[in-house]
Amino acid sequence: MANPVAALFRVPELKEKILFTLLMLLVYRLGAHVVAPGIDVVALREFAGQLQGTVFGIYDMFVGGGLSRATVFALGIMPYISASIMFQLLAAVFPTIEKMQKEGEEGRKKLTQYTRYATVGLSAAQAYGYAMFLQGIPGAVVNPGFGFTLTMILMLTTGAVFVMWLGEQITERGIGNGMSLLIFFSIIERLPADVRQTAELVRIGEVTVLGLIFLLAMMLVIVVGTVAITMAVRKIPIQIPRKVVGRGRVREGQKSFIPLRVNSAGVMPIIFAMSIVIVPGTFAAFSEISWINEMAAWFQYGTWAYWLSFALLTVFFTYFYTAIIFNPVDLAENLKKQGAFIPGVKPGARTAEYIDRVLSRISFPGALFLAGIAVIPLLLLDAFGLPFLGNVLSGTGLLIIVGVALDTVQQMQQHLLLRHYEGFMKKGRVKFRGRQRYM
């Protein structure tokens, strides 16, 4: 069997894409370690260590620790992701945005441009908030004031726009989805330090070798389950009847299917749920009001209220976000326009109802899975005294790592198959995963 890694570099076009992607990722990681001027890193690091489990800690995970180090890429790709999610949600409210989504390539270009503008605005707003936050930390800023605030706004906004450009360049000229890869490498960037910290805990006896082996075995099971649920689809068969085209030519009827993903919502429900469940703790970190601190104590990380609300919110947002990103009515209309139908189901409204019913049924196990993967890994890490591994082995981290890795490997596989190379997966194991589509 040929070496699949060597096969990747035998295809000139694929080799160029991989090397270009690695170069862009290197630039991103270098920028994520360049500290902004006027910052006392030691004072900031000491304060940031107290904010794990707050919005700050979650955000810091997605930008590879840029916030806790106050780097030029401190905002990372998150302003662009936030802008993209914002337009995705607004499409359900404003028909104009929904129309742009359906206008094909031209509409997507307009929406992309608006997303870029929104990214600049969000970056400036977040940079201002971050600058004020830094000046509120004792000793973190050498010369606080208007000059520092203005410098941070200009520098961090420029950094966020540059990171957005890096992601777009990877998507267009590299391999994989650029934005996803930037988040992927931001998450795993902490892995070497986490491994060293774990090894030190084992050395001094705070974590047993047997316990660590058991934990790794459980995490392996969770990763396998994550891969399975990420690739799982429910195929709805469709029939395309015979049709006369041209001068008496007949196009034979075809059978196809609509692949509905069991986990259509991806990682977003966990992110939404996490953003809400940590709100009390975040407010409490900057407030001395008694009832806010009491509420924060109820929903503090590790309490039963925290885990229960986290799981229930994840289930709720799974259904909510699936309804936002997937419209059975539009799909039924597209099928009807093409003359396709689901056997035994009338075209039109009945088809939309059928698809919606199937989607609701398969979303339930997907929601339970997301709730489980959101809570169980963190419970295990907490029980074994390794909560710091939650950056990589949390439900959010695992879903992003698995999803991005599968997408990237499958893109490489497609390039290899086009040139008759044997790829990473055995024949028959490559399945469609990604956007919902038919035919």
Describe this structure as you would to a colleague.
The chain has 439 residues and is mainly alpha-helical. The protein has 2 domains: 1-189, SecY subunit domain (Preprotein translocase SecY subunit, Orthogonal Bundle), CATH 1.10.3370; 191-439, SecY subunit domain (Preprotein translocase SecY subunit, Orthogonal Bundle). It contains 20 helices and 4 strands. The chain has helices at residues 4-8, 12-31, 41-48, 55-62, 66-69, 78-90, 95-101, 104-135, 146-173, 178-188, 191-203, 209-231, 268-277, 279-285, 290-298, 304-325, 328-337, 349-383, 390-393, 395-418; strands at 233-240, 243-245, 249-251, 254-261. Strands 1-4 form a two-stranded antiparallel ribbon. The chain has a two-stranded antiparallel sheet with strand order 2-3. Strand 2 and strand 3 form a beta hairpin. Helix 12 (209-231) runs antiparallel to helix 18 (349-383). It is globular, with a radius of gyration of 24 Å. It starts with a helix and ends in a 21-residue tail after the last helix.
